[in-house]
Design a protein that fits this description.
globular; about 260 residues; 6 helices; alpha+beta; single chain; Pseudouridine synthase; 2 domains
């Protein structure tokens, strides 16, 4: 696999290994890299990095060649901790836990607004937004007005710290996903009235203006911790520190 552009080389260098065994590895995924090939088929992905670094894994009989070793995904511009499998048996072991919702995944997110309560859980129906093919839509009730597929999505979140910037309220949240749907956290928080700072899709005019003033280049969403059962049957926890670009944003704003 040839990856010779400057941006590809930069992405390769920015992927860091947190932990590794003969069967799987844990990485820190940087922002700006997709997990597996999308519609354009050209962008360098985490899947490409894995196959470049461990070409021997291509000898295994994977169910999907596009998703070799990919246990779970993060959005392209979301950073954080990810697990990758080196063989199909390990892939099945971990994905079975995701399907049964045994995995605990936690994120850090900076959102616009101050939370009304320090802790909340939202359950809603998530589906493709008919007005924006790149976005998801949250509904509390399915009125049966169309045939779009809707899936239940659950998100739990806590307020960790309140901030002010340019006299506007901000909140740093710890977020736990109870289901694993596309864009779930971003769509849920926007629906709740707390859009993620820097998010170009799920936003409001005040959040967009403040994001521009902060100079943030992507959504402030980082998968910082995952807890899962390893192939030996033991619970393991892996964490990934907040990356420099997001830490710099926190350093700009004032703690309340």
């Amino acid at each position: 696999m040839i990856t010779n552009s400057f941006s590809d080389i930069t992405l390769q260098m920015n992927i860091k290994i947190i932990y590794e065994t003969d069967n799987y590895l844990v990485i820190s995924k940087p922002m700006g890299i997709a997990v597996y090939p999308g519609a354009d088929r050209k962008s360098y992905t985490v899947r490409d990095w894995l196959c470049d670094k461990y070409p021997e894994i291509l000898k295994h009989n994977w169910k999907s060649k596009d998703r070799v070793g990919v246990i779970h995904r993060l959005d392209k511009d979301t950073s954080g901790v990810m697990l990758l499998a080196k063989n199909p048996a390990t892939l099945d072991h971990f994905q079975d836990q995701f399907r049964k919702r045994k995995v605990n995944k936690f994120y850090l997110s900076l959102v616009y607004g101050k939370l009304k309560s320090k802790h909340n859980i939202i359950y809603g129906l998530i589906s493709a937004d008919p007005k924006n093919r790149k976005a998801q839509k949250i509904q509390m009730i399915d009125f049966g007005l169309d045939k779009r597929e809707r899936k239940t999505a659950g998100t739990e979140y806590w307020a960790k710290q309140d901030f002010l910037y340019d006299k506007q309220p901000l909140s740093l949240l710890e977020v736990k996903i109870l289901t694993g749907r596309k864009h779930q956290i971003r769509a849920h928080l926007k629906h709740e009235g707390y859009p993620v700072i820097g998010d170009p899709t799920y936003t409001t005019k005040p959040a967009k203006r403040l994001s521009k003033k902060l100079g943030i280049a992507r959504q402030f969403l980082h998968a910082y911790k995952i807890k899962i059962i390893d192939p030996g049957g033991k619970w393991v926890t892996f964490e990934d520190d907040l990356p420099d670009d997001l830490q710099k944003i926190l350093n700009k704003i004032n703690v309340v």
